[in-house]
Amino acid sequence: MKPAPFEYFAPDSIEEALGYLAEYGYDAKLLAGGQSLIPMMNFRLAQPSVIVDLNNIKELFFIQPDSNGGLRIGAMARHHQVEESELVADRAPLINETMPQIATVQVRSRGTFGGSLSHADPSAELTAVSVALEGRMLLRNQKRERWVPADEFFVGLFTSALEPDELLVEADFPALPENSGCAMVEVARRQHDFALVGVAAVVTLDRNHRCKKAKLVLLSVGDQPIEAKQAESMLLDAELSSQTLRAAAETAASVDIDPGGDIHASAEFRRHLASVLSYRALEKAATRARKGG
Question: What is the pTM of this model?
Fold first, then answer.
C-alpha cells in the first residue's frame, strides 16, 4: 500500500520547520521516527499534503540535566538513546524502567520521545509516565513558546495541546523528592503488544514512612492517561500497608476510571487488571521509597 501524494521538506533548524508549519498549518504533518505516521499514511488513514521531516534538526536530539536536578529530553531523542542513558537512569528511573516495555527493539531504534508524546496514544506508556512524573512540554511556534504541564498536554484520543503551527521541542521532568519510589507495570496479550492496561506509580514518604505524596496514572483505560485522584487521596498521610494499597487500587479501578471494552478486552476485565496492576505498582513504588528510592 502506498500513501497519497505529498510535498516533502527536510529543514535543518527549528526556525525553518516552524516556518513550514506557519505556512501550511493543518495540511502539514511532522515526521519524527515515523513509527505511527508512516503506517497511517500507507493505509490512507492520514493524508497530509505536506510532510516536514525533523530528522536533520540536530538541536532536537539531546538528553540533558537541568540545574535543579531534573531532566530535559529533546523531542527527537530516540527511544533507544533514552533507554541506554545513564543520566535518565539516575534522574528519572521511572522513564528508565519504562523504555524496554515500549514496542520492540526495532521500533525503539527509530521511534522518538517527542513523537510518542505528540501522537498522544492513550495506550502509550510515555503519556502516563509523563503525567506521573509531573513533566511539562515546551511548545514553540514562530511567535512564542509556552510550557504545558503533562496533565494538560493530553486532551483526548490521539489529541494533544499542540496547535497546527506548533512544534514540541522538549520534555522537562523535575527531580524526584527524597524517599521517592516509582514503578511501571502493564499487561499485554503478547510480548511487545500495546498494553491492555498499564499503571505508572510514584510514591514519596516522609520521615515516619507515611505517604507524603502519591501519583497513580493508568493507560489504556480511556481516551488519555487517567490520573487516579481518588485513589491518591486515600494514600496521603497513611502508612502504606498492604490493606491500604489494596483499597486504593480498588478505588482506582472502580471509581477513577471508566474503561471501555473492545476486541482485546472487556471493560470488566480492564477494571480487574487496573485493580491488580495498581496494587502491584503501588507496592513496588512504596518498597523502593522505603529503601530510599
Answer: 0.96
